[in-house]
């Protein structure tokens, strides 16, 4: 009688490997917890353990774990695997992380000044709201460019930068996030001359930014061409036909974004606005130039709280000036405030001696029915906040070192408003 042996059922090697990974991950996490690791490390280990459990591939649970990570670790996790990168890059996740972690929120402005023979531009950052400790470091040295780097434009927490000391053919362009030191390189717009280049970005409308470039045209030296770069395509494309610019002194390098629309003014009577979503360029009215002047003296052009603001003055600002606001239907400008900064001169001896100051930034701010708007003013050696309601002065707080011996180094065209709308790219 011959006995028949039952074949031994062998376990699937892949199943054994999964069990071993789960067991090892749980043991590591238990050991680390017993050693009383910090909350931050326990979260990181739980992420590692969860990611090694193949049968628990649930996006909602994983997103909930990632939401609890500190910003620096979260950005690092984007490079760990494609799954994490996909979750962290999702616009809904970005919004949830931003709302959950208000400690990273900060708004303010960068000041940029170019120094002779310096590779990088000199930067300062002044917070106007949010957490001052979350302010970005005033340096672009994390961008690797042997020609140096300067800021070209800023919008909603993104800086658009370029190579510094070089010709257009050698210039490189970057989109960066200074708080996390992330940056991406962009292709050159392929033109001879760039007159102005601006970044538009509204995370509440779209997760994608756009770059708008005003460059030369092949038709004539008086024509300009708008080109748009979109990260979705990774390339530049012409927008509309070339257009004639009668004002050779258009400030295309100081475009102002208000309600998603780009605005440019000049030293003459021409002013333009461009909607990058529908790609339409139209003119807009400007106040008349004073009779005794041959060109417009723009002392400030900017935006705050959805209001487009303009300051013009032919004499010293201490003699008084108007702050004008564009009407909502673009039919014209009206005087929003009339200011006399004689009190600033009385309280700041440097202003009284030199009779000089510059307006850097305007913040439109209302608390219930009270107008709490203020201006940031630069006087020789100082930066002060001037509240419009009661004409009070206050020194600005900053984490940066300010040379008290400096003169009137900065003006409005070296100011780049910064609002950390999204904490990372």
Automatic annotation (TrEMBL):
Domain of life: Eukaryota
SUPFAM superfamilies associated with the record: F-box domain (SSF81383)
Domain F-box: 59-91
Domain named F-box associated beta-propeller type: residues: 146-267
Gene3D superfamilies membership: 1.20.1280.50
PANTHER family for the chain: EXPRESSED PROTEIN, F-BOX PROTEIN INTERACTION DOMAIN PROTEIN-RELATED
Name the UniProt record assigns to this protein: F-box domain-containing protein
Record organism: Hibiscus sabdariffa
Lineage: Eukaryota, Viridiplantae, Streptophyta, Embryophyta, Tracheophyta
């Amino acid at each position: 009688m011959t006995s028949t042996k039952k074949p031994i059922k062998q376990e699937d090697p892949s199943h054994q490997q999964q069990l071993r990974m789960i067991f090892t991950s749980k043991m590591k996490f238990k050991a680390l917890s017993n050693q009383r690791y910090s909350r931050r490390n326990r979260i990181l280990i739980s992420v590692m353990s969860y990611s090694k459990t193949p049968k628990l591939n649930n996006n909602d649970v994983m997103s909930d774990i990632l939401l609890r990570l500190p910003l620096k670790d979260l950005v690092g996790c984007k490079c760990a695997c494609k799954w994490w990168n996909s979750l962290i890059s999702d616009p809904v996740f970005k919004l949830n992380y931003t709302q959950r972690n208000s400690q990273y929120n900060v708004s303010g402005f960068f000041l940029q000044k170019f120094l002779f023979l310096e590779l990088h531009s000199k930067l300062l950052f002044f917070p106007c709201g949010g957490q001052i400790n979350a302010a970005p470091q005033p340096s672009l040295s994390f961008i690797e460019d042997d020609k140096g780097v300067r800021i070209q434009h800023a919008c909603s927490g993104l800086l658009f930068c370029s190579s510094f000391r070089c010709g257009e053919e050698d210039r490189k362009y970057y989109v960066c996030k200074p708080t996390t030191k992330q940056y991406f390189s962009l292709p050159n717009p392929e033109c001879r001359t760039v007159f102005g280049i601006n970044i538009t970005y509204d995370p509440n409308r779209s997760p994608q930014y756009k770059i708008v470039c005003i460059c030369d045209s092949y038709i004539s030296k008086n024509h300009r061409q708008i080109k748009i770069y979109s990260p979705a395509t990774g390339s530049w494309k012409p927008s509309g036909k070339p257009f004639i610019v009668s004002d050779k002194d258009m400030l295309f390098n100081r475009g102002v974004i208000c309600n998603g629309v780009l605005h440019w003014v000049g030293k003459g009577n021409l002013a333009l606005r461009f909607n990058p979503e529908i790609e339409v360029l139209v003119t807009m009215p400007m106040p008349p130039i004073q009779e005794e002047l041959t060109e417009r003296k723009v002392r400030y052009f900017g935006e705050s709280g959805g209001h487009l603001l303009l300051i013009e003055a032919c004499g010293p600002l201490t003699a008084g000036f108007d702050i004008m606001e564009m009407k909502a239907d673009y039919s014209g400008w009206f005087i929003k405030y009339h200011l006399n900064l004689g009190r600033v001169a009385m309280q700041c001896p440097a202003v009284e001696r030199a009779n000089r100051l510059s307006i850097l930034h305007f913040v439109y701010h209302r608390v219930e029915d009270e107008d709490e708007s203020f201006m940031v003013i630069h006087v020789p050696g100082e930066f002060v906040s001037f509240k419009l309601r009661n004409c009070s002065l206050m020194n600005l707080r900053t984490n940066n070192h300010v040379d008290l011996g400096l003169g009137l180094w900065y003006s409005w065209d070296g100011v780049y408003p910064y609002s950390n709308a999204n904490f990372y790219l």
